[in-house]
Amino acid sequence: MPGPHLITHLHQAGPDTVALSCTLPTRLPRAHATIAACRAVGVPSWPAGAASGPVDDASLFTEFVGWTAGVLRARGVPLTSLAAGLAAFGRELRDFPRAGRMLAEAAAACQMFDPSGGTSPGSGGAGTVPSPAPGQARPRV
C-alpha cells in the first residue's frame, strides 16, 4: 500500500496488527517509515524478511553473489568483473569489519563458482560461455 494512504487505511480498517516483509535492504528506510506510521496510530507491526535478517549472517549476500556469478557467466561476462567490484567495495568499506567479512565470504564463493579463475584450458576465459559450434546458435539466457 502506498505510504500516504497507509494511515487512512489503518484508521478505516482497524487492524489488530500489521505484518511487514522487506526483502531488499535498500527498502529498509521505507519499511521504517511504514513502521513509524503504524506506531503513530497505535497499531503494532511485525517486521520481518530477508533484509532484516540475523546480525552477521553473510549467507544471503553470498548466495546472491553466487547467483549473480551464474548470470554473468551465462551472459559471457568475465567473473573478474564481479571480483573487482567486490574488491572495490571492500576498499571503500574498510572501516566496517562486518561488511568486510561479508565481502570476503562472497569473494570466496565467487572463486568456488569458478575456481580456475577462468584460465583453465577450455574455459573460454574468465567466466565466459564457450562459443557455439559452427552452425549452432548461442543459447538464450
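[next item in queue]
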Amino acid sequence: MAGLEGTARPPSARSIDGWTVPGYADVQELARGGNDRVVISLHAATGQYVAIKYLNEELSTSPAFCTAFRQEAKLLSDLNSPHVTRLYEYVEAPQGAAIVMELVAGAALRALLRQAGRTEPEAALMRQRRTLRARSAG
C-alpha cells in the first residue's frame, strides 16, 4: 500500500463512519458489505497500520450476528498460518463490535474479478491448485 508502509506518527483519533475502536484512528475504508465494513486504521500507541472489521451498526444489536462475529474472531485467533491474517484483538463495546487484525497488502478480490472478468470453475480450480503448490513449496 503506497504511503502506508511501516509506522507513522498517529493522527488524532477519528472515525470514517461511526464508532472507532479506542486507540485507533481510521485512515481509509477498504470495503463495505451488508454485514460489516473494513477500514485501515492507525494504532496510536505504536503507529502501526492495521485492518479493522466493524460489524454493521444495525446488526450489532442482534445476538445471533454478535455471536457469529465473535466466533469469526475466535476462529481467526486459533489459526496460525502465514497465509491467514493475524488477529490482534476482538473488541465489544456498547457502540459495536470489531475485529482488529494484521493489515495485508494486496488487491481486493472484487477488483481482481472486475479486471479479469468472470472465471470458469475449471480455470479457478487450476489457479487455486497452482497457488497451493507454490505455497507448499515455499
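[queue empty]
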